[in-house]
UniProtKB/TrEMBL annotation:
Family the entry assigns: Belongs to the HAD-like hydrolase superfamily. CbbY/CbbZ/Gph/YieH family.
One Pfam family linked to the record: Hydrolase
Lineage: Bacteria, Bacillati, Actinomycetota, Actinomycetes, Mycobacteriales
One Gene Ontology term of the molecular function aspect: metal ion binding
This protein's UniProt keywords: Carbohydrate metabolism, Hydrolase, Magnesium, Metal-binding
InterPro entries (UniProt xref): Beta-PGM-like (IPR051600), HAD-like_sf (IPR036412), HAD-SF_hydro_IA (IPR006439), HAD_sf (IPR023214), PGP-like_dom2 (IPR023198)
Protein name: Hydrolase
Taxonomic superkingdom: Bacteria
Keyword Nucleotide-binding (UniProt): no
Organism: Gordonia jinhuaensis
Needed cofactors: Mg(2+)
Amino acid sequence: MIGLPDDIKVALFDLDGVLTSTAAVHRKAWKQAFDDYLSHLDAGAYSAHSRRPFTDDDYLTYVDGRPRADGVRAFLQSRGLDFDDDTVDQIGTEKNQLFLDAVDRGEVEPYPGSVRYLDACRDAGIGIAVVTSSRNGVAVLVAADLIDYASKRIDGNEIAARHLKGKPAPDSYLEGAKEMDVDPAHAAVFEDAISGLQAGRAGHFGYVVGVNREETEEHAQTMRDAGADVVVNDLADLLEG
């Protein structure tokens, strides 16, 4: 009924891009923060190639699904830019404020298909937890009216407090399975980020679902290569299989 193997007892959901449309909000905030930083770089010290604007490919490759500071470092390194911890904090703080401003403006909505799927999981007796790198996970769940679905949450704050490695390491998902008192082999991971799919594979979870919001076959194949057992454009697709 819910498109999962019979031995799956728990569903571990990423948040942004899987349950809510906030991945697009994150992407917009990252672009504004990075472009602001890049525009102020010394043209004499860095090439135009290094200073070119932040792109959708940059978001998917270096930032999506990762803890905030890890994403900043990965992107700046990809451009060959020199930076220190203060720079990482400056960019991350600006991005976070832009994101929170968007949340305050009401730019957070759940995907209707995801709500249908959450209801189906709950009706089927599947345990539900949210595992997200975002430090704003609770605020997003509340804004999207999804807070009551998740019996456990591992968010960016918990990842930092418990000294867990961020995605693509499997630590946060393994912690989610532990909190739900289930072996990873009996848990399914739901992810839209390549780093999250890699985490699902590295953690040897029983089933890994890729949510392809790009809706292209090229991206679907990239998700399969990263570890997805199945790729859908919307979680409701699993109910129709």
